[in-house]
Amino acid sequence: MTLHTELNQTREKHDKEWGYEDWLVNSEDKNLCGKRLILHRQTHCSMHYHKIKTELFYVNKGLVLMEFDGRKGVMKPGDTLMITTEKRHRFTGITDAEIIEFSTFHRDSDSHREQPSGKWTDEEFKKMLDEHKGEIEKFHAFGV
């Protein structure tokens, strides 16, 4: 078996309401998961938490509104956020975006969803953008 084949054996694409997950690796024996999360503008993942999994999100492209542990903030390319167990979180695409997720092994049974994924209505999305207008304009001023 070549190294290339071994590395790509676990690669999977999972379509989501908000875009898709490109699973680069998900290894239970190494307790490791790596994904590219492709997020469309105005869409969001579910509000959820994990009892076992710890995640590190790295924004690679675009602007993302992250809701985390009762707080909200805009993330730009280069920003990271560590999400430990039991912390409720959700991300929304302010623009089309790409998030790189590094985490412990992913188990579907460990995703505890409180609100579903979906697309914000135009009214909800405009309100969200207005609430974070200063942060968003600051990033756009630097070409993000």
Number of helices: 3
Spatial shape:
globular
For this structure, what is the CATH homologous superfamily? Jelly Rolls
The CATH first-level class comes to Mainly Beta
CATH architecture descriptor: Sandwich
Q: What's this entry about, in short?
A:
This protein has helices spanning 3-8, 122-131, 133-141; strands at residues 12-16, 19-27, 32-39, 43-44, 47-49, 55-61, 64-68, 71-75, 80-83, 89-93, 97-103, 112-115, 118-119. The protein has 144 residues and is an alpha+beta fold. A hairpin with a 2-residue loop joins strand 7 (64-68) and strand 8.
Chain-wise SSE layout:
Blueprint: H1 3-8, E1 12-16, E2 19-27, E3 32-39, E4 43-44, E5 47-49, E6 55-61, E7 64-68, E8 71-75, E9 80-83, E10 89-93, E11 97-103, E12 112-115, E13 118-119, H2 122-131, H3 133-141
Antiparallel strand pairs: 1-2, 2-3, 3-11, 4-13, 5-12, 6-9, 6-11, 7-8, 7-10
Question: Could you list some keywords that capture this structure?
Answer:
46% strand, 144 residues, six-stranded antiparallel beta sheet, alpha+beta, globular, three-stranded antiparallel beta sheet, single chain, Jelly Rolls
Can you describe what's shown?
- By secondary structure, the chain is α+β, with helices and mostly antiparallel strands.
- It has a six-stranded antiparallel sheet with strand order 1-2-3-11-6-9, with no helix packed on it. It has a three-stranded antiparallel sheet with strand order 8-7-10, with no helix packed on it.
- It has one domain (3-141): Jelly Rolls (Sandwich).
- A hairpin with a 4-residue loop joins strand 2 (19-27) and strand 3 (32-39).
- The chain has helices spanning 3-8, 122-131, 133-141, and strands at residues 12-16, 19-27, 32-39, 43-44, 47-49, 55-61, 64-68, 71-75, 80-83, 89-93, 97-103, 112-115, 118-119.
